């Protein structure tokens, strides 16, 4: 009798763990999704308004340094077969109202150091 109970419990446990992948879990994106094409449009000496037009508003503006903006995008996958979790960052620094530096996980265009006015 005890053996049949143990076998039934083991069968239930193993069958429920085998069905684990049947449950649909959604991906959870958070932050600003930035496309490489949009980042390629950035140029040195752009104004803050121009950067917002190209990339949108930043996720985080530093409260103590209004000239530093953070664009962060994080994707948590619901199911491993859709890919790995990832995180991308872009940090933009201004001097006054002009863009002076861009650092992060994106490659800048070759024309980045050429101002739009030139």
UniProtKB/TrEMBL annotation:
Its main location: membrane. GO terms for molecular function: protein-macromolecule adaptor activity. It is a lipid-anchor. It is found in: Cell outer membrane. One of its GO terms (cellular component) is Bam protein complex. Part of the outer membrane protein assembly complex, which is involved in assembly and insertion of beta-barrel proteins into the outer membrane. InterPro entries: BamE, BamE-like, BamE_dom. This is Outer membrane protein assembly factor BamE. GO terms for biological process: Gram-negative-bacterium-type cell outer membrane assembly; protein insertion into membrane. It comes from Brumicola blandensis. Belongs to the BamE family. Part of the Bam complex. Keywords: Cell outer membrane, Lipoprotein, Membrane, Palmitate, Signal. The lineage of its organism: Bacteria, Pseudomonadati, Pseudomonadota, Gammaproteobacteria, Alteromonadales. Residues 31-102 form the Outer membrane protein assembly factor BamE domain. It comes from the Bacteria.
